[in-house]
Write a structure and sequence with these properties.
single chain; 247 residues; alpha+beta; five-stranded mixed sheet; four-stranded antiparallel sheet; 9 strands; 43% helix; 22% strand
């Protein structure tokens, strides 16, 4: 998934074609495998696994598929050893980009990521060259339909949320400490709220606007290449006017 224009991205994912949905399922399956390997197969004793299962449901992965992924992960003691890596760099006109990957081949993934940056006219940076421009926070998205803003804000803040945003037309955005994300999500779900998305996100401190159509096209293509790569789990950026781009 990419952001900062999170809601448009979520809507695009929810309407994704079969090929795109298959990639999403594959990426979530990889996250489940890592969560099970690191913390065991019981979501009651594995907070990270609970988070990934919630993410799977939010991305419309059927329960049967989730069960099969969990059984496979629990029994796959000799499976691929995935490594979590964060890449960072710059796209056209200095757009800051953070890429989260799960890979079983560091050299392959690094080469592909570098290629995507280069092809867009950007460049891959060293660790720490971009992430200082972002803060990592938990982000919970709830659709506005049939939700009372004052009640939700009170419930969210009582649950421990750090901030409550209503800038977008269609959604409420709740910010949390990353360590509190799962507990706050579970509490709000328990009160009947429909959670569209909940995950740890890199939130930009500042944004970069692209006005050159060629730069916009290159940036959009770079995001697409990252999202199509099975090793890449998330891409975060500070492209301010992504929603203005039309192919």
């Amino acid at each position: 998934m990419s952001g900062h224009n999170k809601w448009s991205t979520i809507k695009r994912k929810k309407g994704a074609n079969d090929a795109a949905r298959a990639k999403i399922f594959t990426k979530i399956g990889r996250e489940l495998a890592v969560a099970v390997k690191n913390g065991g197969p019981d979501p009651n004793n594995n907070a990270k696994l609970r988070d990934v299962i919630a993410k799977a449901k939010q991305n419309n992965v059927p329960n049967d598929n989730i069960e099969r992924m969990l059984k496979k992960a629990a029994g796959d003691t000799d499976g691929a050893n995935y490594e979590e890596i964060v890449y960072e760099g710059y796209g056209p006109s200095g757009v800051a980009v953070v890429v989260e990957a799960l890979t079983d081949n560091r050299n392959r993934t690094a080469g592909e990521v570098r290629h995507y940056f280069d092809k867009a006219g950007g460049n891959m940076g060293n660790p720490g060259s971009v992430t200082f421009m972002f803060s990592k926070q938990g982000v919970i998205i709830i659709e506005k339909e049939d939700v009372d803003e004052d009640t939700l804000m009170e419930d969210a803040l009582e649950a421990g949320a750090a901030d409550f945003l209503t800038d977008e037309e269609d959604i409420f955005e709740i910010r949390t400490e990353t360590s509190d994300l799962g507990a706050i999500r579970d509490e709000l779900e328990g009160k009947g709220y429909n959670i569209v998305s909940s995950e740890a996100a890199y939130i930009p401190a500042t944004y970069t606007r692209l006005d050159n159509p060629d730069d916009m096209k290159k940036m959009a293509k770079m995001i697409e290449m990252f999202e199509e790569n099975e090793d890449v789990q998330n891409i975060w950026h500070n492209w301010e006017n992504e929603d203005e781009y039309e192919e």
